[in-house]
Amino acid sequence: MKIYEKAPAKINLLLDVLRKREDGYHEVEMIMTMVDLADRLEMEELPRDTIIISSQAGYIPLDEKNLAFQAAKLIKERYDVRKGVYIHLDKKIPVAAGLAGGSSDAAAALRGLNRLWKLGISEEELCELGAELGSDVPFCITGKTALATGRGEKLQRIGNPPQCWVVLAKPPINVSTADVYGRLRASQLESHPSTSDMLSAIERGSFGDMCASLGNVLESVTLSLYPEVGQLKESMQRLGADGVLMSGSGPTVFGLVSKESKVARIYNGLRGFCKEVYVVRMLT
Ligand SMILES: C[C@@](CO)(OP(=O)(O)O)[C@H](O)COP(=O)(O)OP(=O)(O)OC[C@H]1O[C@@H](n2ccc(N)nc2=O)[C@H](O)[C@@H]1O
Ligand SMILES: Nc1ncnc2c1ncn2[C@@H]1O[C@H](COP(=O)(O)OP(=O)(O)O)[C@@H](O)[C@H]1O
Predict the structure, then answer these.
(1) What percent of the chain has pLDDT over 90?
(2) Do 165-281 and 2-157 fall under one CATH topology?
(3) What angle in degrees, to the nearest 10, is found between the helix axes of 67-78 and 123-133?
(4) Domains of the chain: which residue ranges?
(5) What is the pLDDT of residues 38-64, one digit of tens each?
(6) What is the CATH number of domain 165-281?
(7) How many angstroms separate the CA atoms of 233 and 235, rounded?
(8) N-to-C CA span, the chain
(9) Choice from 67, 69, 177 to test ligand 2 binding pocket (greatest atom count within 8 A of CB)
(10) Residue pair 190/19 in contact by the 8 Å Cβ criterion
(11) Are 51 and 73 in contact (CB under 8 A)?
């Protein structure tokens, strides 16, 4: 039997860092939502007790370093499953982009193997397993829109943001999340985006206030390393996006656009100098 799971990309509408913790992670406050750019996982049980990963994408690891492999290994060990699995990853989400592609694959593998092996694991337990694989994995398990705290693993579901178009543009740079957090200095934490303003904008369904409340404290770190990310933001603003922000540790920049008539102009304008541009919707 083959089963399939979608693994959507996330964007951070807001990302605040409160402090560095003793364990090396940072205490964050993030408002995250899913968009309809997704990898697709195909999973099939194997007669031999082994984990095999394949992908059409030539640029991701297919061994123990792959997050879907780690998810399969973890669930097998924890639930004593002595069966094998073949997982094919149809990658559509750009890698190391700030869109949680690897984390979402891990989450989809956990959800899918729970179904394939009829393990009956609750969503809460899946999130606990996911947190062992990465801070963003629990959110990728639950999806929708959430306020994430702790190192990103504590989730509080919130309502859907006002619907709009989302233009994603990824410059040809690979950013390391650990490097960006590692370079964050106290001076960059003197001003904070307002989580309460963003929550209120979403609750009231105010698209304008949501755009005005976008904020990401990691942006200044990535922009100082890669000025082209800042240039991309400016281009998106100039082309008419209503709100523009870098997602996660970057380098993907997203633009929120309310009017469909503006989307083609922004897409075409960006495609002139950026190869990876996507027009998507939020998953509500
Ligand atoms: C920045 C964010 C925003 O959503 O996403 P991406 O840009 O990676 O998509 C996340 O916080 C990334 O989550 P994730 O990619 O799962 O990170 P992890 O694998 O847990 O951690 C990678 C490294 O980032 C740093 N890290 C991560 C999360 C956190 N709250 N504090 C940290 O300092 C640590 O150095 C850690 O070793
Ligand atoms: N299934 C996977 N898909 C993408 N990247 C993966 C996967 N498994 C492991 N990785 C590794 O994880 C790192 C971060 O990738 P990704 O999750 O796409 O980025 P981000 O955390 O910026 O959203 C990359 O260095 C990549 O090689």
Answers:
(1) 96
(2) no
(3) 130
(4) 2-157, 165-281
(5) 999 999 999 999 999 999 998 899 999
(6) 3.30.70.890
(7) 5
(8) 30
(9) 67
(10) no
(11) yes
Interface ipTM > 0.90: yes
At a CB cut-off of 8 Å and minimum separation 6, what does 34 contact?
8, 9, 10, 143, 144, 145, 282, 283
Active-site residues, by number, are 10, 136
Instruction: Kindly report the CATH number that applies to the domain delimited by 2-157.
Output: 3.30.230.10
Ligand 1 site residues, Cβ closer than 6 angstroms: 12, 15, 24-26, 28, 30, 98, 100, 103, 134-136, 151-152, 177-178, 181, 248-249
Amino acid at 127: C
Q: For residue 228, is pLDDT > 90?
A: yes
Structure-token match 């989580």, residue found: 195
Residues 191-207 have a mean pLDDT of 97
**What band does 190 get if pLDDT is binned at 50, 70 and 90?**
confident
